[in-house]
């Protein structure tokens, strides 16, 4: 299996510099906590919500038909 590669116009050094001070897991945890607070009806002031919907499709049936 080959390694997945992300294509970018930035060099690896530029990408590393851009993400140097970012703690991915802390940011992900904070985002999940915000989503949970929103679902519980207690979002923080300034919380931005973008709702997206997925078509209601029976994917198992679609796979069987192909």
Write the layout of secondary structure elements.
Layout: H1 12-18, H2 24-39, H3 59-65
How would you describe what is shown here?
The chain contains 3 helices and no strands. The chain is an all-alpha fold and 66 residues long. The chain has a domain of 36 residues.
- Please report the number of helical segments: 3
Quaternary structure: single chain
- The total of beta strands comes to 0
CA distance, first residue to last residue: 26 Å
Shape: flat
Global mean pLDDT: 86
Weakly predicted, low-confidence segments: none
Question: Which value, in Å, is the CA radius of gyration?
Answer: 19 Å
**Beta-strand percentage range:** under 5%
Approximate helicity band: 40-55%
* Sheet having the most strands: none
By secondary-structure content and strand pairing, the structural class works out as: mainly alpha
Taken in chain order, the helices and strands follow as HHH
Brief sketch in words of this structure:
The chain is mostly helical and 66 residues long. It has helices at 12-18, 24-39, 59-65. The longest helix is centred in the middle third of the chain and has 16 residues, at 24-39.
Core attributes:
66 residues, mainly alpha, 3 helices, 45% helix, flat
């Amino acid at each position: 299996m080959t390694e997945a590669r992300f294509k970018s116009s930035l060099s690896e050094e530029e990408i590393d510099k851009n993400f140097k001070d970012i703690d991915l897991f802390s940011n992900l945890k904070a985002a999940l906590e915000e989503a949970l607070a929103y679902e519980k009806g207690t979002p923080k002031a300034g919380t931005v919500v973008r709702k997206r919907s997925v078509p209601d499709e029976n994917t198992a049936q679609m796979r069987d038909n192909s």
